Input
Amino acid sequence: MSKRVPYDDAYATCERTFAELRIYTGDISPDYVTHILGIHPTHIVRVGEIITNSSGRQRVGRVNGWFLSSEGNSNSLDLRRHLDWLLPQLNENISALRQLQDLEEIKMSIVCIWWSKSNTGGPTL
Output
């Protein structure tokens, strides 16, 4: 068994990081996911909806999606803290997640994003 490395909230080589549950719902409304999980998403995308990003660029939503992100919910640069924020919320709703996974249209994943300050190395999970 490997030795547990202490968290490093000021991870020197990390510019920005977050973990996100992404649920793509096909033709099902993303609001259905909110209803089943009982969790409010950090953001939703709907087909045909105008989406404006943080730099003001706009695009039209091409998929229905429900997203729960640690971005803005943890200030740590240690990705593990972001997973620590996300995973307990999912564990509390595991039967609802399984119910959603049984629907053929639903596609889901947990994505971990980590930007390097200097284009070198990154975390190991």
Summary: Residues 50 and 56 are 12 Å apart (CA to CA).
